[in-house]
């Protein structure tokens, strides 16, 4: 299928890393593909010389990661990964991580966007995978910060990956992004969240308001 790149992701030589891994269950007896046993097919590539490494001497993903989550080629510290903090983490985002999150309200693709192999990728033709079939190409900070109920959240994002973060996670992320972007128009919405019942959201809103007033 490909090789594991320095960004720890599976990379196809033909189309890059913006791919889905799927499987087909069948009772047919099929001959397996011969992928060989060369180092290029192994995730354990640290120390391989650049002329044998499919990533070559490129280190764009390591250099561009804003939180230094890629601590060395093919080694990811998930505790510093924006995707972890904005999607999988169900608690608060540490203060020292917030600035690095930038404007990423859900996940992060920087280590893929800078990868030369993804210069080979093309826009999908599958309607189900187009942005407008899901959450849309962009998320409005004011819309996110004003989302007052789980029902409203489900109506807006049902069937999209954003459901994984849940409303609380998305609001938390939106507070951080509003602060990072110095988005003063978010002030009233942040003040409302700060006065709400959820202490975790209130703390993130308070932090964002402090940044806006600094």
Which helices and strands, and how do they pair?
Layout: E1 3-4, E2 10-11, H1 60-64, E3 70-72, E4 75-76, H2 82-88, H3 95-101, H4 110-113, H5 141-145, H6 150-157, H7 166-180, H8 187-194, H9 199-213
Antiparallel strand pairs: 1-2, 3-4
Characterise the protein shown here:
- This protein is mainly alpha-helical.
- The protein folds into two domains: 1-18 and 56-122, no CATH class; 138-213, Leucine-rich Repeat Variant, CATH 1.25.10.
- It is built from nine helices and four strands; from the N terminus they run ββαββαααααααα.
- The protein has helices at residues 60-64, 82-88, 95-101, 110-113, 141-145, 150-157, 166-180, 187-194, 199-213; strands spanning 3-4, 10-11, 70-72, 75-76.
- The strands form two sheets. A two-stranded antiparallel ribbon has the order 1-2. Strands 3-4 form a two-stranded antiparallel ribbon.
- Helix 8 runs antiparallel to helix 9.
- The chain starts with a strand and ends with a helix.
- 29% of the residues are buried.
- Residues 37-46 have low confidence and may be disordered.
Sum this structure up briefly.
With 214 residues, the protein is mainly alpha-helical. The protein has helices at residues 60-64, 82-88, 95-101, 110-113, 141-145, 150-157, 166-180, 187-194, 199-213, and strands at residues 3-4, 10-11, 70-72, 75-76. It has a two-stranded antiparallel sheet. Strands 3-4 form a two-stranded antiparallel ribbon.
């Amino acid at each position: 299928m490909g090789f594991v790149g320095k960004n720890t992701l599976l990379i196809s030589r033909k189309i890059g890393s913006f791919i889905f891994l799927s499987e087909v269950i069948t009772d047919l007896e099929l001959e397996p593909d011969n992928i060989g046993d060369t180092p290029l097919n192994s995730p354990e590539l640290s120390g391989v010389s650049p002329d044998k490494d499919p990533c070559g001497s490129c280190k764009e993903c390591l250099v561009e990661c804003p939180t230094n989550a890629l601590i060395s080629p093919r080694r990811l510290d998930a505790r510093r990964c924006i995707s972890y903090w904005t999607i999988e983490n169900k608690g608060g985002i540490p203060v020292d991580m917030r600035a690095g999150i930038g404007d990423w309200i859900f996940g992060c693709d920087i280590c893929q966007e800078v990868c030369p192999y993804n210069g080979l990728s093309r826009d999908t033709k599958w309607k189900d995978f187009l942005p407008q079939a899901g959450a849309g190409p962009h998320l409005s900070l004011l819309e996110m910060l004003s989302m007052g109920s789980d029902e409203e959240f489900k109506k807006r994002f049902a069937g999209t990956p954003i459901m994984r973060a849940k409303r609380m996670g998305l609001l938390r992320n939106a507070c951080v992004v509003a602060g990072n972007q110095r988005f003063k128009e978010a002030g009233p919405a942040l003040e409302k969240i700060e006065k709400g019942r959820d202490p975790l959201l209130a703390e993130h809103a308070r932090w964002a308001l402090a940044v806006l007033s600094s």
